[in-house]
Specification:
The complex is a heterodimer. By secondary structure, chain A is mainly alpha-helical. Chain A folds into two domains: about 45 residues, no CATH class; about 160 residues, Nitrile hydratase alpha /Thiocyanate hydrolase gamma (Nitrile Hydratase, Chain A). Chain A is built from twelve helices and four strands. In chain A, the strands form two sheets. In chain A, strands 1-4 form a two-stranded parallel ribbon. In chain A, α4 crosses α5. Chain A is globular, with a radius of gyration of 20 Å. By secondary structure, chain B is α+β, with helices and mostly antiparallel strands. Chain B has two domains: about 90 residues, Cyclin A, domain 1; about 80 residues, SH3 type barrels, CATH 2.30.30.50. Helix content of chain B is about 30%, strand content about 15%. Chain B has eight helices and five strands. In chain B, α1 runs parallel beside α4 and α2 packs across α4. Chain B is globular. The mean pLDDT of chain B is about 95. Classes of the chains: A mainly alpha, B alpha+beta. Chains A and B meet through α2, α3, α8, α9 and α10 of A and α1, α2, α4, α5 and α6 of B. β3 of chain A pairs parallel with β4 of chain B.
Chain lengths: ~210, ~220
Protein backbone atom coordinates (compact mmCIF):
# COMPACT_ATOMS: atom_id res chain seq x y z
CA UNK A 1 0.00 0.00 0.00
CA UNK A 2 1.43 3.35 -0.94
CA UNK A 3 0.74 6.18 1.45
CA UNK A 4 -0.11 8.65 -1.29
CA UNK A 5 -2.97 6.47 -2.43
CA UNK A 6 -4.52 5.32 0.75
CA UNK A 7 -3.66 7.21 3.86
CA UNK A 8 -5.75 10.27 3.13
CA UNK A 9 -9.06 8.64 2.42
CA UNK A 10 -10.62 9.86 5.61
CA UNK A 11 -8.86 13.17 6.05
CA UNK A 12 -11.40 15.36 4.31
CA UNK A 13 -15.11 15.37 4.80
CA UNK A 14 -15.77 16.17 1.16
CA UNK A 15 -13.93 13.01 0.10
CA UNK A 16 -17.08 11.21 1.15
CA UNK A 17 -19.08 13.17 -1.37
CA UNK A 18 -19.93 10.81 -4.25
CA UNK A 19 -18.41 13.03 -6.88
CA UNK A 20 -15.05 13.23 -5.13
CA UNK A 21 -15.07 9.53 -4.35
CA UNK A 22 -15.62 8.78 -8.01
CA UNK A 23 -12.66 10.94 -8.98
CA UNK A 24 -10.50 9.46 -6.26
CA UNK A 25 -11.18 5.99 -7.64
CA UNK A 26 -10.65 7.13 -11.19
CA UNK A 27 -7.29 8.78 -10.51
CA UNK A 28 -6.16 5.85 -8.40
CA UNK A 29 -6.98 3.44 -11.25
CA UNK A 30 -5.03 5.60 -13.66
CA UNK A 31 -2.00 5.85 -11.40
CA UNK A 32 -2.07 2.11 -10.69
CA UNK A 33 -2.15 1.16 -14.38
CA UNK A 34 0.62 3.61 -15.27
CA UNK A 35 2.79 2.47 -12.37
CA UNK A 36 2.36 -1.22 -13.25
CA UNK A 37 3.40 -0.42 -16.79
CA UNK A 38 6.48 1.40 -15.55
CA UNK A 39 5.38 4.58 -17.31
CA UNK A 40 5.44 6.81 -14.27
CA UNK A 41 7.51 7.18 -11.14
CA UNK A 42 5.18 7.86 -8.18
CA UNK A 43 8.09 9.63 -6.47
CA UNK A 44 8.19 12.08 -9.38
CA UNK A 45 4.55 12.93 -8.65
CA UNK A 46 5.44 13.53 -5.00
CA UNK A 47 8.29 15.81 -6.12
CA UNK A 48 5.98 17.80 -8.42
CA UNK A 49 3.39 18.25 -5.68
CA UNK A 50 6.03 19.25 -3.14
CA UNK A 51 7.43 21.84 -5.53
CA UNK A 52 4.07 23.56 -5.96
CA UNK A 53 3.10 23.24 -2.31
CA UNK A 54 6.31 24.59 -0.86
CA UNK A 55 8.61 26.23 -3.43
CA UNK A 56 6.61 28.01 -6.12
CA UNK A 57 3.82 30.36 -5.03
CA UNK A 58 2.64 33.97 -4.92
CA UNK A 59 5.55 34.96 -2.66
CA UNK A 60 7.69 34.81 -5.83
CA UNK A 61 5.48 37.35 -7.57
CA UNK A 62 5.32 39.53 -4.45
CA UNK A 63 9.12 39.82 -4.51
CA UNK A 64 8.99 40.86 -8.16
CA UNK A 65 6.44 43.57 -7.35
CA UNK A 66 8.34 44.82 -4.27
CA UNK A 67 11.52 45.13 -6.31
CA UNK A 68 9.67 46.95 -9.10
CA UNK A 69 8.25 49.41 -6.54
CA UNK A 70 11.69 50.00 -5.04
CA UNK A 71 13.99 50.05 -8.06
CA UNK A 72 12.97 52.11 -11.12
CA UNK A 73 15.61 50.35 -13.25
CA UNK A 74 14.10 46.97 -12.42
CA UNK A 75 10.61 48.29 -13.20
CA UNK A 76 11.88 49.46 -16.59
CA UNK A 77 13.45 46.06 -17.22
CA UNK A 78 10.12 44.39 -16.35
CA UNK A 79 8.36 46.61 -18.88
CA UNK A 80 10.90 45.82 -21.60
CA UNK A 81 11.63 42.15 -20.92
CA UNK A 82 9.63 40.70 -18.05
CA UNK A 83 10.83 37.14 -18.70
CA UNK A 84 14.49 38.11 -18.20
CA UNK A 85 13.83 40.51 -15.32
CA UNK A 86 11.84 37.86 -13.45
CA UNK A 87 14.41 35.17 -14.25
CA UNK A 88 17.06 37.35 -12.59
CA UNK A 89 15.27 36.59 -9.29
CA UNK A 90 15.39 32.87 -10.05
CA UNK A 91 11.76 32.48 -11.14
CA UNK A 92 11.65 30.58 -14.41
CA UNK A 93 10.12 27.55 -15.97
CA UNK A 94 6.80 25.91 -16.55
CA UNK A 95 3.96 28.34 -17.33
CA UNK A 96 6.31 31.30 -16.94
CA UNK A 97 8.35 30.84 -20.11
CA UNK A 98 7.03 34.01 -21.76
CA UNK A 99 6.20 36.61 -19.12
CA UNK A 100 4.66 40.06 -19.46
CA UNK A 101 4.23 42.55 -16.61
CA UNK A 102 1.35 45.03 -16.81
CA UNK A 103 1.40 48.03 -14.51
CA UNK A 104 -1.64 49.48 -12.82
CA UNK A 105 -1.80 53.28 -12.90
CA UNK A 106 -4.24 55.85 -11.55
CA UNK A 107 -5.74 55.88 -15.07
CA UNK A 108 -5.99 52.12 -15.75
CA UNK A 109 -6.59 48.97 -13.72
CA UNK A 110 -5.50 45.66 -15.27
CA UNK A 111 -7.26 42.32 -14.86
CA UNK A 112 -6.00 38.97 -16.17
CA UNK A 113 -8.15 36.01 -17.24
CA UNK A 114 -7.99 32.94 -19.45
CA UNK A 115 -11.44 32.52 -20.95
CA UNK A 116 -10.46 29.41 -22.94
CA UNK A 117 -8.72 27.31 -20.29
CA UNK A 118 -6.65 28.04 -17.20
CA UNK A 119 -3.49 29.86 -18.38
CA UNK A 120 -1.79 31.41 -15.35
CA UNK A 121 1.78 32.50 -14.53
CA UNK A 122 2.81 29.52 -12.40
CA UNK A 123 6.45 30.60 -12.01
CA UNK A 124 5.45 33.73 -10.08
CA UNK A 125 2.01 32.91 -8.65
CA UNK A 126 2.10 29.12 -8.25
CA UNK A 127 -0.92 26.98 -9.05
CA UNK A 128 -4.10 28.92 -9.84
CA UNK A 129 -6.99 29.05 -7.37
CA UNK A 130 -10.13 27.09 -8.22
CA UNK A 131 -12.18 30.20 -9.00
CA UNK A 132 -9.67 31.33 -11.64
CA UNK A 133 -10.26 28.11 -13.60
CA UNK A 134 -14.03 27.95 -13.07
CA UNK A 135 -16.80 29.14 -15.42
CA UNK A 136 -18.06 32.14 -13.41
CA UNK A 137 -14.75 34.03 -13.52
CA UNK A 138 -13.82 32.93 -17.03
CA UNK A 139 -17.21 33.94 -18.45
CA UNK A 140 -17.66 37.24 -16.65
CA UNK A 141 -14.20 38.81 -16.40
CA UNK A 142 -14.32 39.98 -20.02
CA UNK A 143 -17.92 41.26 -20.08
CA UNK A 144 -18.54 42.41 -16.51
CA UNK A 145 -15.17 42.98 -14.87
CA UNK A 146 -16.54 45.60 -12.46
CA UNK A 147 -19.18 43.16 -11.27
CA UNK A 148 -16.46 40.57 -10.71
CA UNK A 149 -14.29 43.08 -8.84
CA UNK A 150 -17.26 44.00 -6.67
CA UNK A 151 -17.49 40.36 -5.57
CA UNK A 152 -13.85 40.59 -4.52
CA UNK A 153 -14.65 43.75 -2.54
CA UNK A 154 -12.82 46.00 -4.98
CA UNK A 155 -14.42 49.24 -6.18
CA UNK A 156 -12.30 51.18 -8.64
CA UNK A 157 -12.21 54.96 -8.32
CA UNK A 158 -14.50 56.94 -10.61
CA UNK A 159 -12.92 57.41 -14.02
CA UNK A 160 -10.31 54.66 -13.71
CA UNK A 161 -10.41 52.60 -16.89
CA UNK A 162 -10.29 48.83 -16.84
CA UNK A 163 -8.22 46.70 -19.18
CA UNK A 164 -8.83 42.95 -19.32
CA UNK A 165 -6.06 40.71 -20.67
CA UNK A 166 -7.39 37.42 -22.02
CA UNK A 167 -4.44 34.98 -22.02
CA UNK A 168 -5.24 33.35 -25.34
CA UNK A 169 -1.62 32.57 -26.33
CA UNK A 170 1.49 31.50 -24.42
CA UNK A 171 2.20 34.89 -22.86
CA UNK A 172 1.63 34.89 -19.11
CA UNK A 173 0.67 38.11 -17.37
CA UNK A 174 1.47 39.44 -13.92
CA UNK A 175 -0.21 42.64 -12.77
CA UNK A 176 2.04 45.10 -10.93
CA UNK A 177 -0.39 46.75 -8.52
CA UNK A 178 -0.05 50.39 -7.51
CA UNK A 179 2.23 50.96 -4.53
CA UNK A 180 0.15 51.89 -1.50
CA UNK A 181 0.56 55.36 -0.04
CA UNK A 182 2.71 55.80 3.03
CA UNK A 183 5.13 52.96 2.26
CA UNK A 184 8.19 55.09 1.47
CA UNK A 185 10.17 53.84 4.45
CA UNK A 186 9.53 50.13 3.91
CA UNK A 187 12.17 47.70 2.68
CA UNK A 188 11.42 45.13 0.00
CA UNK A 189 10.53 42.35 2.47
CA UNK A 190 7.96 44.57 4.16
CA UNK A 191 6.63 45.72 0.79
CA UNK A 192 6.27 42.13 -0.41
CA UNK A 193 3.99 41.47 2.59
CA UNK A 194 1.53 43.97 1.09
CA UNK A 195 1.34 42.17 -2.25
CA UNK A 196 -1.47 39.63 -2.37
CA UNK A 197 -1.94 36.95 -5.00
CA UNK A 198 -5.19 38.59 -6.11
CA UNK A 199 -3.46 41.97 -6.54
CA UNK A 200 -1.19 40.31 -9.13
CA UNK A 201 -4.19 38.87 -11.02
CA UNK A 202 -6.04 42.18 -10.80
CA UNK A 203 -8.91 40.94 -8.64
CA UNK A 204 -7.41 42.75 -5.67
CA UNK A 205 -5.27 45.73 -4.71
CA UNK A 206 -2.12 45.80 -2.64
CA UNK A 207 -2.81 45.99 1.09
CA UNK A 208 -2.59 49.40 2.81
CA UNK A 209 0.65 50.24 4.58
CA UNK A 210 -0.55 49.51 8.12
CA UNK A 211 -1.13 45.85 7.31
CA UNK A 212 2.53 45.15 6.63
CA UNK A 213 3.27 44.96 10.33
CA UNK B 1 -14.02 24.52 -31.67
CA UNK B 2 -17.14 26.14 -30.26
CA UNK B 3 -17.02 23.97 -27.16
CA UNK B 4 -17.92 24.51 -23.54
CA UNK B 5 -14.42 25.83 -22.89
CA UNK B 6 -15.09 29.03 -24.84
CA UNK B 7 -16.66 30.84 -21.91
CA UNK B 8 -15.98 34.54 -22.49
CA UNK B 9 -19.23 36.53 -22.19
CA UNK B 10 -21.51 33.61 -21.34
CA UNK B 11 -24.25 34.31 -18.82
CA UNK B 12 -25.71 32.29 -15.99
CA UNK B 13 -22.53 30.83 -14.51
CA UNK B 14 -23.16 32.49 -11.15
CA UNK B 15 -20.96 34.47 -8.79
CA UNK B 16 -17.21 33.95 -8.49
CA UNK B 17 -16.72 31.66 -5.51
CA UNK B 18 -13.43 32.85 -4.11
CA UNK B 19 -12.23 31.09 -1.00
CA UNK B 20 -10.29 32.70 1.82
CA UNK B 21 -6.85 31.11 2.37
CA UNK B 22 -7.61 28.56 -0.32
CA UNK B 23 -5.41 25.46 -0.18
CA UNK B 24 -3.58 24.44 -3.35
CA UNK B 25 -5.44 21.13 -3.35
CA UNK B 26 -8.90 20.23 -2.06
CA UNK B 27 -8.42 16.46 -2.08
CA UNK B 28 -5.54 14.04 -2.24
CA UNK B 29 -6.53 12.87 -5.74
CA UNK B 30 -6.03 16.39 -7.10
CA UNK B 31 -2.34 16.17 -6.22
CA UNK B 32 -2.03 12.88 -8.05
CA UNK B 33 -3.99 14.31 -11.03
CA UNK B 34 -1.52 17.20 -11.30
CA UNK B 35 1.50 14.91 -11.04
CA UNK B 36 0.09 12.36 -13.50
CA UNK B 37 -0.70 15.07 -16.04
CA UNK B 38 2.82 16.49 -15.89
CA UNK B 39 4.49 13.05 -15.77
CA UNK B 40 2.61 11.81 -18.83
CA UNK B 41 3.23 15.10 -20.63
CA UNK B 42 6.93 14.31 -20.26
CA UNK B 43 6.49 11.23 -22.51
CA UNK B 44 6.80 13.64 -25.42
CA UNK B 45 3.92 11.90 -27.22
CA UNK B 46 1.68 14.96 -27.43
CA UNK B 47 1.98 18.73 -27.00
CA UNK B 48 0.16 21.29 -24.87
CA UNK B 49 -2.17 22.20 -27.73
CA UNK B 50 -3.32 18.62 -28.20
CA UNK B 51 -3.83 18.43 -24.41
CA UNK B 52 -6.00 21.54 -24.45
CA UNK B 53 -8.00 20.16 -27.34
CA UNK B 54 -8.55 16.85 -25.52
CA UNK B 55 -9.94 18.78 -22.54
CA UNK B 56 -12.22 21.07 -24.54
CA UNK B 57 -13.54 18.05 -26.46
CA UNK B 58 -15.24 16.72 -23.34
CA UNK B 59 -19.04 16.77 -23.61
CA UNK B 60 -20.18 20.26 -22.56
CA UNK B 61 -22.27 19.00 -19.64
CA UNK B 62 -19.25 17.11 -18.30
CA UNK B 63 -16.89 20.02 -18.86
CA UNK B 64 -19.09 22.56 -17.10
CA UNK B 65 -19.79 20.40 -14.07
CA UNK B 66 -16.21 19.19 -13.56
CA UNK B 67 -13.49 20.74 -11.44
CA UNK B 68 -10.36 21.59 -13.38
CA UNK B 69 -8.38 18.64 -12.07
CA UNK B 70 -11.24 16.41 -13.21
CA UNK B 71 -11.08 18.01 -16.66
CA UNK B 72 -7.33 17.34 -16.69
CA UNK B 73 -7.81 13.72 -15.63
CA UNK B 74 -10.45 13.02 -18.27
CA UNK B 75 -8.34 14.75 -20.92
CA UNK B 76 -5.31 12.70 -19.89
CA UNK B 77 -7.28 9.46 -20.22
CA UNK B 78 -8.20 10.46 -23.79
CA UNK B 79 -4.57 11.18 -24.67
CA UNK B 80 -3.22 7.98 -23.11
CA UNK B 81 -5.74 5.88 -25.02
CA UNK B 82 -5.29 7.77 -28.28
CA UNK B 83 -1.53 7.30 -28.18
CA UNK B 84 -1.65 3.63 -27.21
CA UNK B 85 -0.23 3.81 -23.68
CA UNK B 86 -3.31 2.42 -21.93
CA UNK B 87 -6.59 0.86 -23.04
CA UNK B 88 -10.13 1.61 -21.97
CA UNK B 89 -10.29 -1.91 -20.51
CA UNK B 90 -7.25 -1.20 -18.34
CA UNK B 91 -8.74 2.03 -17.01
CA UNK B 92 -11.97 0.21 -16.20
CA UNK B 93 -10.11 -2.66 -14.52
CA UNK B 94 -7.67 -0.40 -12.69
CA UNK B 95 -4.77 -2.64 -13.67
CA UNK B 96 -2.39 -3.49 -16.49
CA UNK B 97 -3.81 -6.02 -18.95
CA UNK B 98 -1.35 -5.75 -21.81
CA UNK B 99 1.94 -4.16 -22.67
CA UNK B 100 1.46 -0.79 -24.34
CA UNK B 101 3.55 1.66 -26.22
CA UNK B 102 6.93 2.73 -24.81
CA UNK B 103 7.35 6.47 -24.35
CA UNK B 104 10.44 8.41 -25.44
CA UNK B 105 11.01 9.55 -21.89
CA UNK B 106 9.82 8.59 -18.41
CA UNK B 107 9.89 11.31 -15.77
CA UNK B 108 11.73 10.18 -12.67
CA UNK B 109 11.91 12.09 -9.39
CA UNK B 110 15.49 13.26 -10.00
CA UNK B 111 14.43 14.88 -13.29
CA UNK B 112 11.57 16.90 -11.80
CA UNK B 113 13.44 20.07 -10.70
CA UNK B 114 15.15 20.42 -14.07
CA UNK B 115 12.02 19.75 -16.11
CA UNK B 116 9.89 22.22 -14.13
CA UNK B 117 12.61 24.89 -14.23
CA UNK B 118 12.99 24.52 -17.99
CA UNK B 119 9.30 24.50 -18.86
CA UNK B 120 8.28 24.33 -22.50
CA UNK B 121 9.10 27.52 -24.36
CA UNK B 122 7.09 27.75 -27.58
CA UNK B 123 8.59 30.78 -29.28
CA UNK B 124 10.05 29.81 -32.66
CA UNK B 125 11.80 31.78 -35.39
CA UNK B 126 9.92 32.54 -38.60
CA UNK B 127 11.52 33.52 -41.92
CA UNK B 128 9.46 36.66 -42.57
CA UNK B 129 8.95 39.80 -40.52
CA UNK B 130 5.61 40.68 -38.92
CA UNK B 131 2.82 41.84 -41.28
CA UNK B 132 1.41 44.20 -38.68
CA UNK B 133 2.94 46.87 -36.46
CA UNK B 134 1.84 48.52 -33.24
CA UNK B 135 -0.97 50.95 -33.99
CA UNK B 136 -2.33 49.09 -37.02
CA UNK B 137 -6.09 48.69 -37.23
CA UNK B 138 -7.14 45.08 -37.78
CA UNK B 139 -10.26 42.96 -37.96
CA UNK B 140 -10.30 39.46 -36.54
CA UNK B 141 -11.34 36.61 -38.72
CA UNK B 142 -14.84 35.19 -38.66
CA UNK B 143 -14.71 31.41 -38.63
CA UNK B 144 -16.11 28.49 -36.68
CA UNK B 145 -13.68 25.60 -37.03
CA UNK B 146 -14.63 22.31 -35.44
CA UNK B 147 -10.93 21.92 -34.65
CA UNK B 148 -8.77 23.65 -32.03
CA UNK B 149 -8.40 27.42 -32.11
CA UNK B 150 -7.32 30.11 -29.66
CA UNK B 151 -9.50 32.84 -31.14
CA UNK B 152 -12.46 33.03 -28.75
CA UNK B 153 -15.93 33.46 -30.22
CA UNK B 154 -16.51 36.82 -28.54
CA UNK B 155 -13.47 38.25 -30.36
CA UNK B 156 -14.28 37.02 -33.90
CA UNK B 157 -15.09 39.54 -36.66
CA UNK B 158 -14.20 42.47 -34.38
CA UNK B 159 -12.20 45.59 -35.08
CA UNK B 160 -9.24 46.31 -32.84
CA UNK B 161 -5.80 47.87 -32.68
CA UNK B 162 -2.48 46.06 -32.62
CA UNK B 163 -0.82 47.13 -29.39
CA UNK B 164 2.32 44.98 -29.28
CA UNK B 165 4.12 42.60 -31.62
CA UNK B 166 4.88 39.83 -29.13
CA UNK B 167 7.16 37.54 -31.13
CA UNK B 168 6.63 34.38 -33.15
CA UNK B 169 5.12 31.26 -31.60
CA UNK B 170 3.95 27.75 -32.40
CA UNK B 171 0.51 27.90 -34.05
CA UNK B 172 -1.86 25.89 -31.84
CA UNK B 173 -4.60 25.47 -34.45
CA UNK B 174 -2.20 23.25 -36.42
CA UNK B 175 -0.06 21.87 -33.62
CA UNK B 176 -3.05 20.45 -31.73
CA UNK B 177 -3.79 18.18 -34.68
CA UNK B 178 -0.34 16.89 -35.56
CA UNK B 179 0.05 19.27 -38.49
CA UNK B 180 3.32 20.72 -37.26
CA UNK B 181 4.31 23.78 -35.27
CA UNK B 182 4.01 26.21 -38.21
CA UNK B 183 4.98 29.27 -36.11
CA UNK B 184 3.41 32.66 -36.75
CA UNK B 185 3.74 36.17 -35.34
CA UNK B 186 1.57 36.85 -32.31
CA UNK B 187 0.09 40.27 -31.53
CA UNK B 188 -1.71 41.74 -28.57
CA UNK B 189 -4.87 43.22 -30.09
CA UNK B 190 -7.05 45.59 -28.06
CA UNK B 191 -10.79 46.07 -28.53
CA UNK B 192 -13.13 48.65 -27.07
CA UNK B 193 -15.77 47.13 -24.82
CA UNK B 194 -18.46 48.57 -27.12
CA UNK B 195 -16.98 46.84 -30.19
CA UNK B 196 -17.25 43.46 -28.48
CA UNK B 197 -20.36 43.74 -26.33
CA UNK B 198 -22.31 46.48 -28.12
CA UNK B 199 -25.26 48.13 -26.44
CA UNK B 200 -24.84 48.61 -22.72
CA UNK B 201 -21.11 47.80 -22.72
CA UNK B 202 -18.91 49.37 -20.05
CA UNK B 203 -17.60 52.54 -21.78
CA UNK B 204 -14.39 52.42 -19.73
CA UNK B 205 -13.57 48.80 -20.68
CA UNK B 206 -11.00 47.54 -23.14
CA UNK B 207 -10.25 43.85 -23.69
CA UNK B 208 -7.19 42.38 -25.34
CA UNK B 209 -6.40 38.98 -26.77
CA UNK B 210 -3.13 37.57 -28.04
CA UNK B 211 -3.78 36.72 -31.67
CA UNK B 212 -1.77 34.73 -34.20
CA UNK B 213 -1.20 36.54 -37.47
CA UNK B 214 -3.60 34.39 -39.49
CA UNK B 215 -6.45 35.44 -37.19
CA UNK B 216 -6.07 39.03 -38.39
CA UNK B 217 -6.96 41.04 -41.49
CA UNK B 218 -5.85 44.57 -42.22
CA UNK B 219 -8.58 47.25 -42.35
Amino acid sequence: MTPENDMHDHDHDHDHDNHFSEMQARVKALETVLTQKGLIDPAAIDAIVETYETKIGPRNGARVVAKAWSEPDFADWLRRDATAAIASLGYTGRQGEHMRAVFNTPETHNLVVCTLCSCYPWSVLGLPPVWYKAPPYRSRAVIDPRGVLDEFGVALPEGQKIRVWDSTAELRYIVIPQRPAGTEGLDQDALADLVTRDSMIGTGLAKPAGEAL
Amino acid sequence: MNGAQDLGGQHGMGPVASEKDEPYFHAEWEKRALGLTLSCGAFGAWNIDESRHARESLPPATYLSASYYEIWTRGLETLLKRHGFVSAAELAAGQMLEKGREPKRILTADMVPGVLAKGGPCDRPVPDGPRFAAGDRVRTKNFNPETHTRLPRYARAKHGIVEVVQGSFVFPDDNAHGKGENPQWVYTVVFDGEEIWGEGADPELTVSIDAWESYLERV
